[in-house]
Design goal:
Strands 1, 2, 3, 5, 6, 7 and 9 form a seven-stranded mixed beta sheet that branches. Strands 4-8-11-10 form a four-stranded antiparallel beta sheet, covered by helices on one side. It folds into two domains: 223 residues, Acetylcholine Binding Protein, Chain: A (Distorted Sandwich), CATH 2.70.170.10; 103 residues, Neurotransmitter-gated ion-channel transmembrane domain (Methane Monooxygenase Hydroxylase, Chain G, domain 1). The radius of gyration is 39 Å and the shape is rod-shaped. Helix 5 runs antiparallel to helix 6, helix 5 runs parallel beside helix 7 and helix 6 packs antiparallel against helix 7. By secondary structure, the protein is α+β, with helices and mostly antiparallel strands. The longest helix has 55 residues. The structure holds 2-acetamido-2-deoxy-beta-D-glucopyranose (6 copies). One 2-acetamido-2-deoxy-beta-D-glucopyranose (NAG) binds next to loops. The site of one 2-acetamido-2-deoxy-beta-D-glucopyranose has 3 residues, from loops.
C-alpha cells in the first residue's frame, strides 16, 4: 500500500516537473514530434476513418496585375489561408506553462492537397510558407501567397464598359467529398471588404465583389467537394474613351465637315484619305486588344467598322462626284467646242461664197 502511495507521489512529482518545464521541447516531446514520424505525414488526422476532415479556406485578393483579353487569363495576387484540425496533436495549455500555439514545419504533418482548377500559373509563382501554426485544440493554420494566373472566359461584347465575372474554384485532387470537405471560414462580404482593404494595385480594374459558393461536384460515382469564388471585376473605361472612342467620333465629324471644302480646290480627296488613314491607325490599336477568337463581334468593333465604312463610302462618293463633274465639264466644253467650230465653218463657208 505504501509502495502504491509512493508510486502516486512519484508520478505527481514527475508531472510537477513537467509543469515547471516551459520550453517547447516538452510540448514537442508530448506531441511525439521530436522524431519525424511518417504516420503523421501520411495519415489523414482523424480518429475514425469515416470522419470527414473539414478544411476551411479563405482567399483574399490583394492585387489585380493583368487581364489578358487575347489569352483570356486574369493575373492576380491572392493570399490563401487554410485551416483544418489534427485530432492527434492536441494539448492542454496549462500543462505546458500556457503555451497555446506552436509553429512547426509543414513537412512534419499531413496537409490537404487543395488546388485551383483554373490555375494556369507558371511554377514558382507560389510562395508557400514552409511553416504552419498549430493551436492547442489541434487546429492548423497555413497561409500561401500566390501570383495566380487563372483562365477566365471574358465576355467582351460591351468592351470597354464591361464587367467580368471570373471563377476561382478550389478542390482537392485526391480526396472525395466524404473524406475532405471544403468550406469558407469568413463570409463573402468580409472577404470583399478585406480584399478592398489590402488591395495594393488594380490597374484599370476595380474589384467589385467576391461571391463564394460551396458545392459537391458529382462525376459518376465520385463526388468532390468544391469551393468556388466568383470575382466581379469592373473595367475603368476612361482611357479607352479618350484613346479610341472620342477620336473616332471626332474623325467622323471631320469627315462630314469636309463636305464644306469646295470640290474645285482639289484638297478634298487628300483630306479624306488622311482621315481614313488615321482611322486605320486606331483600328490597329483595337486589334492589339481584342482577341480574334471572339464569335460575336464586340460592340466597339462594330462601331469602328461602321465609322471606317462611312468614311470609306464618303471618300468613294467624292471620287465619283469628282469624276462625273470632270466628265460633264469635258462634254460641255466638247459641245461648246463643236458649236464654235460649226460657227467657224459657217463663217469660213460664207467667206468662200463671198
Ligand atoms: C525541460 O526538460 C528537458 C527534457 O526533459 C530538459 O533537458 C530541460 O533542462 C528542462 N528545462 C527546465 C527549465 O527544466
Ligand atoms: C507518443 O508516442 C507514445 C509511444 O509511441 C504513445 O504512447 C503516446 O500516446 C504518443 N503521444 C501522442 C500525443 O500521440
Ligand atoms: C463510422 O463508422 C462507424 C462504424 O461503422 C459508425 O458507428 C459511425 O457512426 C460512423 N461515423 C460516421 C460519421 O459516419
Ligand atoms: C463560373 O461557374 C458557373 C457555374 O459553374 C458557370 O455558369 C460560369 O459560366 C462560370 N464562369 C466562367 C467565366 O467560366
Ligand atoms: C456577354 O454579355 C452580354 C451583355 O451583358 C450578354 O448579352 C451576352 O449574352 C454575354 N455573352 C455570353 C457568352 O455570356
Ligand atoms: C458506380 O456504382 C455502381 C453501384 O454502386 C457500380 O455498379 C458502377 O460500376 C459504379 N461506376 C463506376 C464508374 O465506378
Amino acid at each position: 500500500m505504501a509502495a502504491l502511495w509512493m508510486l502516486v507521489f512519484l508520478s505527481f512529482g514527475i508531472s510537477g516537473s513537467q509543469l515547471s518545464n516551459c520550453s517547447y521541447y516538452g510540448l514537442l516531446k508530448h506531441l511525439n514530434l521530436t522524431t519525424s514520424s511518417q504516420v503523421l505525414q501520411i495519415m489523414r488526422p482523424v480518429h475514425s476513418w469515416n470522419q470527414t476532415s473539414k478544411v476551411s479556406l479563405d482567399m483574399v485578393m490583394y492585387g489585380i496585375m493583368d487581364v489578358d483579353e487575347k489569352f483570356q487569363t486574369v493575373t492576380s495576387q491572392v493570399w490563401i489561408e487554410t485551416r483544418w484540425k489534427n485530432e492527434f496533436l492536441t494539448w492542454n495549455p496549462p500543462d505546458f506553462c500556457g503555451i497555446d500555439k506552436l509553429t512547426i514545419p509543414k513537412s512534419l504533418v499531413w496537409v490537404p492537397d487543395v488546388s485551383i482548377d483554373e490555375d494556369a500559373s507558371d511554377t514558382g509563382s507560389i510562395r508557400s510558407d514552409p511553416l504552419l501554426i498549430l493551436m492547442s485544440s489541434g487546429e492548423m493554420v497555413t497561409t500561401t501567397r500566390q501570383r495566380l494566373t487563372s483562365t477566365c472566359q471574358l465576355n467582351l461584347s460591351l468592351f470597354p464598359f464591361d464587367v467580368q465575372r471570373c471563377n476561382i474554384t478550389f478542390s482537392s485532387t485526391s480526396y472525395d467529398a466524404s473524406s475532405l470537405k471544403l468550406g469558407p471560414a469568413k463570409s463573402s462580404s468580409v472577404i470583399t471588404s478585406l480584399s478592398d482593404q489590402f488591395m495594393i494595385t488594380q490597374g484599370e480594374w476595380k474589384l467589385q465583389n467576391m461571391d463564394l459558393y460551396q458545392y459537391d461536384h458529382v462525376n459518376g460515382n465520385i463526388s468532390v467537394s468544391k469551393l468556388r469564388y466568383t470575382v466581379l471585376l469592373d473595367r475603368k473605361p476612361m482611357l479607352y474613351v479618350i484613346n479610341l472612342i472620342l477620336p473616332l467620333l471626332y474623325l467622323l465629324i471631320l469627315d462630314l465637315a469636309s463636305f464644306f471644302i469646295p470640290a474645285s480646290s482639289g484638297e478634298k480627296l487628300g483630306f479624306k484619305v488622311t482621315i481614313l488613314l488615321s482611322i486605320s491607325v486606331l483600328l490597329l490599336i483595337l486589334n492589339d486588344i481584342l482577341p480574334s477568337t471572339e464569335d460575336k463581334l464586340p460592340m466597339i468593333a462594330s462601331y469602328c467598322v461602321s465609322v471606317f465604312t462611312v468614311v470609306w463610302l464618303s471618300l468613294l462618293e467624292t471620287m465619283l462626284v469628282g469624276f462625273f463633274t470632270e466628265l460633264s465639264g469635258r462634254r460641255s466644253s466638247d459641245l461648246s467646242g463643236r458649236a464654235s467650230r460649226r460657227v467657224h465653218f459657217s463663217l469660213f463657208f460664207s467667206m468662200i461664197r463671198a
